[in-house]
Amino acid sequence: MTDASVTTATTSPHHASVVAKEATHFGRLARDWWDPAGSSAMLHRLNPVRLRYLRAAVDRHWDLDDRSFVPMAGKSALDMGCGAGLLAEPLARLGAAVTAVDAAAESIAVARDHAARCGLTIDYRAGGVETVAGETFDLVASLEVVEHVADARAFVAGLADAVAPGGLLVMSTPNRTWLSRAALVEAAEALGQIPRGTHDWDKFLTPDELSAMIAEAGLRVVDVTGLTLGTKGFALGSSTALDYFVTAVR
């Protein structure tokens, strides 16, 4: 990745869902997004668990062969809030035709460069959920994103509109609890495990709040699974006190 891949990024268009200071914050982190010891180190540790949940969700929904290396061949996927491609690239390797969108143009520049060097074809776009208005996808994924947008309800509605008939929506986000405040804001940011200013605890959503927004948007929630953090790292579990995944269908 060259410096030019970051500095020549064009500014993303104005979209109502995008909070400018959030895009600026994450754009500053774009340069070392793929460094597992850099500012996105926690995402690197989280990614295997996210992929495990997502793979199980798509296998279950479409009754796919869980032994296949490309189970999503012939299906389209949207990664909304893709950063520099930590989820988009594995989705492409699973065989999906991937469109990936992020509000930070700098992150999109890094994502394009990294995908090209890995020989992956991904349709990367800078902007918000408005970027895919009128398009639909078999899978819509938006992980750790809804807490960063201007209007969560409108954002969820935009995601729901992008889910094709028979399609699947997968989201994850921190819960608004004392534990998430202590672990993700007061401790992780104070200790430098997450860059300062990454989270606004008041914008976190409870599982009931997010599920209600998804139902309002016309989808049916079929699973809520907790994401926990223990001495051995991140894991899926029944407790949603820290963070959680939601799967919904059209």
TrEMBL record:
SUPFAM superfamilies: S-adenosyl-L-methionine-dependent methyltransferases
Keyword Methyltransferase: yes
Listed GO biological process terms: methylation
Keywords carried by this UniProt record: Methyltransferase, S-adenosyl-L-methionine, Transferase, Ubiquinone biosynthesis
GO MF entries: 2-polyprenyl-6-hydroxyphenol methylase activity; 3-demethylubiquinol 3-O-methyltransferase activity
E.C. no: 2.1.1.222, 2.1.1.64
InterPro entries, alphabetized: SAM-dependent_MTases_sf (IPR029063), UbiG_MeTrfase (IPR010233)
UniProt entry tagged with the keyword Lipid biosynthesis: no
Transmembrane segments: none
PANTHER family: METHYLTRANSFERASE, UBIQUINONE BIOSYNTHESIS O-METHYLTRANSFERASE, MITOCHONDRIAL
Entry protein name: Bifunctional 2-polyprenyl-6-hydroxyphenol methylase/3-demethylubiquinol 3-O-methyltransferase UbiG
Gene that produces this protein: ubiG
